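Kindly review both lines to help learners:
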Amino acid sequence: MKKLLAFSMVAIFAMALMLTSCGKYDDGPKFSLSGKKSRVVNVWKQEKLFYNGVEQPVDPNWANESMELTKDYKRIDTYYSNGVTTTSSDVTWAFDSKKTSIIFSSSGFSFTYKILRLKSNELWLEFTFGTSKSEEHYVSK
């Protein structure tokens, strides 16, 4: 009986250790039952923007703008200007091989954004260009 109890305690400890260390993203989540693609496919609205670690004010004109990532790997950006809705859908998206970054591609150009946080209602991305770094926080719309 003591061996069974000791084995159970070791198994519980090992499982807890595995669950707390299996997160891919710096800011979480550590564990999710949903797949990465199902979490990233959404209509996203930018909530915060940081440039070189300093939070930038969000332009009020962006309040109704969104970025939709679709199941068929398209990115659809929606802009509102003077009461007119404009959409752009010539961008595609893909995960890198480790699913730690998202690659946006259009007209032969591609930009890689590191995923910092990926939840069904939050997406945090980091883009580095030379010595400059931007961090974009999105919430589901």
